Amino acid sequence: MTFNEIMALSGPSPCLCGGIEYDKDENKGQTMITSSHHMCLASALAVIEGKKINPTFQIGCMLSYALCYGATCNPKDIFEAKQKMEPIFFYGDIQTKGYYTNSCHAFIKKHNATIPMKKDDEEILMKGKVDYLAFSYYFSGVESISKIKRVPGNVFKRGINPFLKATKWGWQIDPVGLRITLNDLYDRYQIPLFVAENGIGEIDNVEEDGVDVIGYTPWSAIDIISASTGEMRKRYGFIYVDKNDAGEGTLERKKKKSFYWYKKVIESNGQNL
What would the pLDDT profile of 58-72 be if each residue is shown by its tens digit? Predict the structure, then answer.
């Protein structure tokens, strides 16, 4: 995978993916589009060079995906939810299709920006298309044209779905949303998918949907600091790390029960759950 969660460039945390800090009076839209273009070019060049080394290499892109539903059946809410998904598809379209689609151009226009296209850029993007699309999926949410209650602490400021339960951090648990996501992405791009980061499962059901899923990895193998909240206490991993939110601890590592469970899952290629 060339870049992790590249669409963070268009969100509230461009520093996470692109190392970008905007100046007060900067044209943020143009900087975002320029940076995005250069990173997509870099991804394409990496694919091209990788294929020179070994033509059988499978090289992909990676998106952060948070499914968005309309808060009601009001068509305006449905369309608002669709609009919130545009940044994700912007990066997916360029890297999988090798060119700027009509929706990409509309996205750029909304940001009052232009593509800094140079000679050979279009050819590079087309030749450097990725072989598969990877994504992270942790939660879904809703969107509305009206004022709604939103999930606190999320990078994606989605509205709260009353039909879903949530973690103690407010992230809404939506395994069916993962299935919808897989179907939507495969229908749009028609290339293999890889669930690169996930904490919930609905993978088995996609086989009957005809979706080509080539890989699945949970988040995460080891306890690490949360990028969104800066905490250790989320305890993501199969391996416990002796360190608390205050930075205290020996960093000693211990295998959790889930470590042995996941070992069986890997050994059986997902047959022994």
Answer: 999 999 999 999 999
